[in-house]
Amino acid sequence: MKRPFYLLPLVVVAQFAGTSLWFAVNAVMQTLEAFHPQTLAFMPTMTTAVQLGFVLGTLFYSYFSIADRFSPVRIFMVSAALAASCNLSVLVSYQSLEGLFMARLGVGFFLAGVYPVGMKICSDWYETGLGKALGYLVGALVLGTAFPYILKSFSLSLPWQYVIIVTSGLAVLGGIVIGVFVKDGPFRRVAGRFNPAVLQDVFKNKAFRRSAFGYFGHMFELYTFWAFVPVLITSYNQLAHQNLPVPLFAFGIIASGALGCVLTGELSLRWGSHQTAWFSLLISCICCGLCVFLPVYSVFFFLVLMFIWGISVVGDSPQFSTLVSQNAPSDYRATALTLVTSIGFFITIPSLYLTQWLFNAYGHIALAVLGLGGVVGLVASRRI
């Protein structure tokens, strides 16, 4: 079965559209926070809602091996529509903290049928060159994550609901594109009944375990960095007496990660996924340490540092996912990928709250703690 030339571009576009839901509320965080003035740590709580929903969703999809037992293409389409519906419910629940939390929890839950399943669709079509394909795919996730910020930047005169409506519509459109134009790949293996032993057995493989722990270290840094990008820009403006437009540069810095994913995807063809991922993680780990000196940087150096951090912080993600996929049992590849993704996203929750607590006490220096994840990942994955 020949791979159609349009396959990867369509999956990339659909992945971008679906994952635009991820930070839709973060882009209008200041507006929504005004409705909940007594809520401490509003930003970490709203970000955690999506992350926790994603963890629960990935555990559900993983436990029942849904993307292994049923068509990944259909799972993607239905999940994107359900995630968009939950996102739209923010329009009626935003004045209730509990309602807002549950709406975002639902978005995260059904995104478990978009992001990991998108990787599954690609792995079913790419017997070789998967690292490059996943580089573009995760790049689409990065652009989707950043997209609400650019919407906010260019729609300052429009109501905040505009961001929610546009991202929901995009997600539905992405699901339709996958459902209509993409088929399940020739390397897909349909699993039988769920075998709970696979959840334990996959970690007995040393190469799989090292790849997974490299990914876990990377995840300790990634989403907390993304959530704190607007906070870092605001802090720099205050400390250095600058006036950088926060939504615009937040979009640019987060979106630059798409370039990192594409670069590591191309470099993986020459260096291999392991070496490429390891060096990308090393660079982002160094950036964590350099953020300590934030107030003394010129605008130029600050932006260079932030863009390098934005590029490297996610460039290793598709390569670690490739290593996990390549070292997982072929019959339960989606189960293994989803399980590792679930654990990785769970790690983002304590990372968010720890960094927020340290930030309240020590300011921008708190972001250096994210380097701990990089150190763990570098040590764990040094040999695969």
UniProtKB/TrEMBL annotation:
Residues 6-384 form the Major facilitator superfamily (MFS) profile domain. One of its GO terms (cellular component) is plasma membrane. GO terms for molecular function: transmembrane transporter activity. The chain crosses the membrane at residues 7-29, 41-63, 75-94, 100-118, 130-150, 162-182, 213-236, 248-269, 281-312, 332-354, 361-380. SUPFAM superfamilies: MFS general substrate transporter. Keywords: Membrane, Transmembrane, Transmembrane helix. The keyword Magnesium does not apply. The keyword Membrane applies. PANTHER family: MFS TRANSPORTER, TRANSPORTER MFS SUPERFAMILY. This is MFS transporter. It comes from Runella rosea.
